[in-house]
Amino acid sequence: MLSRFISNKPLFILLLMLHVLIARNVFITVEPVETVEQRFAPPPGFKRLPVADNSFAAWLRKLPLLPQGQPVRDYRNRIFKKTGDSTVAAVAAYNIRGRKLEQCMDIIVRLRAEYLWRSGQKAVIRFPLPEGTDFRWTDWAGGLRPVFRGAHFQLQKSAGADSSYAAFEQYLNVLFEYSGTQAFYHYYPDIEPRRVQPGDFVVKKGKKGHAVLIVDMAADSAGNTVALIGQGDTPACQFYLLNYQTGNPWFPLEPAEQKALPLPIKKKMYWKGLRRFPGE
């Protein structure tokens, strides 16, 4: 079968180009595309919280989803969560193939970085390295590279300037390789649980850390709030929304520092780990 394609050179070249394009796309094109906002209406009596048009929260509401009933796949394209898994509400149409480094916090950072890139805010892309050094996309694009010396990272000029998307991918890969979940716990300021908003994330402290993302929120007239919460995992897998109960993805929020979020996962996530990306 392969020899037939290779012998037909125009067809073979077209298929090869298509494979390369798909491999480099971050989001999988699915027709018709259904977004978080379109698929998940708030519970009766609740309305989505107002958010700024160009905010991370507004961008997350437009996050494209795979058709209903899709399994969660890992970076090797193996099934990570089977179709019908009661803990999965939806799977983001996000290409994880070959992205071994994009685990729990990494995939949240990826979403944040893609938002900034696609919304024309490339100059403010920055994330912490493990000892707190600010690792900026503009530094990388200018040819600066992180080098660990003593107890800290230093940036030194060792490459030519390159502001392409391919260079952006390299920047993120180096970030994911060097940094980790705990950098965001220790070097991002605490957010009071009562101030939680869409786009915030919760980090678990410790060696077996984890992170989940507050994708969307809604409130009723009495001030009760609910949220859509999503995560990646280890090994690296597609980003997916969690179910609070079977058929119900909206989690009731009772933000108290000592109280765990009611998530259907083994790791306990506490509000004291609530963090926010700069500028939100």
Automatic annotation (TrEMBL):
Pfam families: DUF4846. It comes from the Bacteria. This is DUF4846 domain-containing protein. The lineage of its organism: Bacteria, Pseudomonadati, Calditrichota, Calditrichia, Calditrichales.
